[in-house]
Amino acid sequence: IVFDYYQNTPTNNTVVIIESDQDMTNNGSLVIYPQPASDQIIIEYLSLIDDEVQLELHSVIGNEIMSYSKSVTTGLNHIQLDVSQYHEGIYTVVLRSNHNVSTQKILIVR
Q: For the CA atoms of 99, 24, 33, 75, what is the dihedral angle to 10 degrees?
């Protein structure tokens, strides 16, 4: 089954509109998988320029628990992050560049 996220889908005389919350056409687009995560996550980040980004992980109450800098190149970048040392729960991944701040929540389970 293939879904076109930008097309109306008729279902039993009802129209269901499915829209993706991830727009990979703009600089700063952020996709994180797998969800939920247990040992590691992959962060896909689309950059229109070579840049230096700051990657942060925040707890559910907003405390920064991890931060480091990473160079990205023009195009789609894949960043692997080990989350095995963190407790189960909801975290926010923040990726900051000189031009953009992207955030997305992740769930860590064991």
A: -70
